[in-house]
Automatic annotation (TrEMBL):
Gene: mcrC
Catalytic activity, EC: 3.1.21.-
PANTHER family in alphabetical order: PROTEIN MCRC, TYPE IV METHYL-DIRECTED RESTRICTION ENZYME ECOKMCRBC
NCBIfam families linked: PRK09736.1
Domain of life: Bacteria
Stated name of the protein: 5-methylcytosine-specific restriction enzyme subunit McrC
GO biological process: DNA restriction-modification system
Keyword annotations from UniProtKB, A to Z: Hydrolase
Top EC class, one word: hydrolase
Organism: Defluviitoga tunisiensis
GO molecular function, one term: hydrolase activity
Length: 344
């Protein structure tokens, strides 16, 4: 289990906007579960957006009408035989607040309000905001096309809010047999893995900009130069100092180690080690030994602590756990020690 407060801090690094004064009180509040935390964040964020004004945008409408509006959809009009009713199908742009972004916000807020696992305090905060969305439709959360979402200067304030909606719907939303929707108490491993990666990267960007933290593409170092059909190699985090490079691959699993049941032994996940070794050797083309790597596993409720260093083919490859179930000041210390120990 991860301390809920640490999920808030991780979100702060993932979404800088959460460090604003309006969200400051959240760091001192106690939350029972992740759903509760997200409900509080959403309530504060939507309240701030309501003060600024709910954003309107142009939405494409397609409707049957007796009056010409926009362009006639001839094909649809013929298929639906609208002429028999003295009507036609028209396609037009409407400047409205009933946009896809606002629909997702309203849908997510109502999911939280209806869920028994969310505390009354958070529900009341969301209920106060719902009337501002009276002219906005609810949609099926399972049919949201997240790839449709685009952000620009006019709706940039929505990006963090919609990312929280995504985590709630895809990371927490579960369906019971009777068709009712229930929220899990904690994010699933897949969503936590992405959040963990983004948190570590942005932590180093914030506190160690001189190491140029970034997620980089590694080119294959082949003898004949042919890289066709080879998969893309992309690091989670790359830190660079003078002539030294550290590649960090973050991992979040329910079980940190893989278990060989036949021999009752535990080992590091083999594909993780193969992957990071491949990264190192394709970056260190001259075998200088100046490229090192770290497999950084999130430690949750397991008792295992990993802190191993291996020298493989002249390169240092380390495996460590980052304890997420401790005070955040300890997490910061652990992240700082990674850089200090490797003497970048």
């Amino acid at each position: 289990m991860i301390k809920i407060q640490n999920i808030y801090y991780m979100l702060c690094y993932a979404f800088e906007v959460l460090k604003k004064e309006s969200y400051e009180k959240l760091k001192d509040e106690k939350f029972e579960n992740t759903a509760d935390l997200f409900a509080a964040i959403l309530a504060l964020g939507v309240a701030e957006q309501v003060k600024k004004g709910i954003i309107k945008d142009y939405e494409i409408r397609n409707e049957e009408t007796s009056f010409l509006r926009g362009k006639i959809d001839v094909s649809s009009s013929i298929k639906q035989q609208t002429m028999l009713r003295s009507k036609m199908v028209c396609v037009y742009d409407e400047f409205t607040e009933n946009t896809y972004l606002n629909q997702i916000l309203k849908t997510t807020m109502n999911l939280l309000i209806r869920n028994p696992d969310v505390e009354t305090k958070q529900k009341q905060s969301l209920k106060i905001l719902i009337p501002y969305f009276n002219r906005i439709d609810e949609i099926d959360p399972y049919k949201i096309q997240w790839s449709r979402l685009t952000y620009h200067r006019n709706n940039a304030t929505y990006e963090m809010l919609l990312n929280i909606c995504y985590l709630i719907i895809n990371g927490l939303l579960m369906t019971e047999e009777k068709g009712t929707k229930k929220l899990a108490k904690y994010l699933d491993d897949q969503r936590m893995s992405r959040l963990f990666e983004k948190f570590v990267l942005n932590y180093y960007r914030k506190h160690y900009p001189e190491l140029y933290p970034s997620s980089t593409i590694i080119k294959w170092h082949t003898d004949n130069g042919d890289t066709e059909f080879l998969p893309q190699m992309k690091t989670d985090i790359t830190l660079t100092s003078k002539n030294k490079i550290l590649i960090i691959d973050t991992k979040y699993y329910s079980k940190t180690m893989q278990i060989n049941r036949l021999y009752n032994t535990k080992t590091i996940h083999s594909h993780n080690m193969y992957q990071i070794f491949t990264y190192v050797k394709n970056v260190d083309k001259t075998n200088s030994g100046n490229v090192s790597a770290l497999l950084l596993y999130a430690k949750t409720d397991e008792s295992i602590d990993l802190n191993k260093d291996y020298i493989i083919g002249g390169n240092r490859i380390s495996v460590k756990t980052l304890d997420l179930n401790t005070d955040f000041s300890d997490i910061e210390k652990q992240l700082n020690e990674i850089v200090e120990e490797l003497k970048l």
